[in-house]
Amino acid sequence: MSIFFKSKNRIIYFNSNEQNSAYELGLALSALIKKHVLCSRNIIFLCIGSDRATGDCLGPIIGYKLSKYIKLPNFYIYGTLEHPVHAKNLKDTITMINQKHDDALIIAIDASLGKSDHIGYITLGEGPLKPGAGVDKDLPEVGDLFITGIVNFSGMLDHMLLQTTRLNVVMSMADQICQAINYSINHLESHLLNEVTS
């Protein structure tokens, strides 16, 4: 679970229940990636969370889905259902990514808690994510960009809320986020191809 650092950059909210949310998220994501990426820079999707709690499995589900169809050079996925990135191994994973992928753009993906009327919303923003802050865990900040899905409301007994989050909410947002990422990658490939041929 995550909260966001306050920054000068705005956080964009997308309602995952609206028809064009994946398309709009994909467009916004590709614009942010273009702003940060040079042609040769690696892009890392760091999908954070545990598969042991429904409310915290958004990241691993997205990682699992992305790993099935993103097989492109310069794109890497960490955090899947088989090999989740969670509180116990996040610090080591960040160290490994920094050693293995010099100057990569890291897009951190995680579930988050928010206001009850924001459940089902997806957020996109620039800057680091602070995983675990929503449930009072002290974990290192990570990411140049972040995507989160608000899976439940924040309140008393946040750990209990993770166990009672509806899987349908998580799966629906995972589908939308994966579609958006797929769209943004295709959009970026077309953009780079046009630059090469023009």
Largest sheet, strands/sense/barrel: 6 strands, mixed
Number of domains: 1
How many beta-strand runs? 8
Taking pLDDT < 50 over at least 5 consecutive residues as the criterion, the unreliable ranges are: 1-7
**End-to-end distance:** 44 Å
Content-based structural category: alpha/beta
Q: Roughly what percent helix?
A: 25-40%
Shape: globular
CATH architecture identity: 3-Layer(aba) Sandwich
Strand content: 15-25%
Tell me what you see in this structure:
The protein has 198 residues and is an alpha/beta fold. The chain has a single domain (2-189), classed as HybD-like (Rossmann fold, 3-Layer(aba) Sandwich), CATH 3.40.50. It is built from five helices and eight strands, in the order ββαβαβαββββαα. A six-stranded mixed sheet has the order 2-6-8-5-3-4. Strands 1-7 form a two-stranded antiparallel ribbon. Helix 1 crosses helix 5 and helix 2 (58-69) packs across helix 5 (167-197). The termini are far apart. 43% of the residues are buried.
Quick overview:
The protein has about 200 residues and is of the alpha/beta class.
Topology:
Layout: E1 2-4, E2 12-15, H1 21-36, E3 43-47, H2 58-69, E4 75-78, H3 90-100, E5 105-114, E6 121-126, E7 129-131, E8 145-153, H4 158-164, H5 167-197
Parallel strand pairs: 3-4, 3-5, 5-8
Antiparallel strand pairs: 1-7, 2-6, 6-8
